């Protein structure tokens, strides 16, 4: 059961999304070593969001169906704002001088990441949100899956940004990241309609 839970968590974490895009962009901009502290912002964002969603799912979501919808709308808006900010950052000369991916922006992007709702409602067992004895092992497995996946996204970005000139070019990489974030926001918005 633990291996199955860990695999489910890892597969969902690996999929591209706003948090992973920001981690790759941070790795590209500042290198792996400087971007690594962002992993703690991601972990904190997911732990808070998954815990809140789990609590909602197990206690009040049946009576307040509008709460998940409002949170999804908020997520769409925030991811769209991140896309615009990333695009604007790409236009700045010498992106290495700025720090568009902060602990705060990564934490908020992760906090609003719709994957947290999937973790709470589909991946984690319901008991994880009703008993501490089930919550702690589930969150420990989550942490064990998140660390290598987050590091992988940072390393991917660092690899793309290595050398005097990035493989893709700094501006182009940021625009690709902005485009991916924009597509993700669009996909989330479309999922609200269906």
TrEMBL record:
GO terms for biological process: cysteine export across plasma membrane. It is found in: Cell membrane. The chain crosses the membrane at residues 6-26, 38-57, 63-84, 116-135, 141-161, 173-193. One of its GO terms (cellular component) is plasma membrane. Its main location: membrane. The keyword Transmembrane applies. Signal peptide: none annotated. One of its GO terms (molecular function) is amino acid transmembrane transporter activity. It is a multi-pass membrane protein. The keyword Transferase does not apply. Keywords: Cell membrane, Membrane, Transmembrane, Transmembrane helix. This is CmaU. It comes from Candidatus Burkholderia verschuerenii.
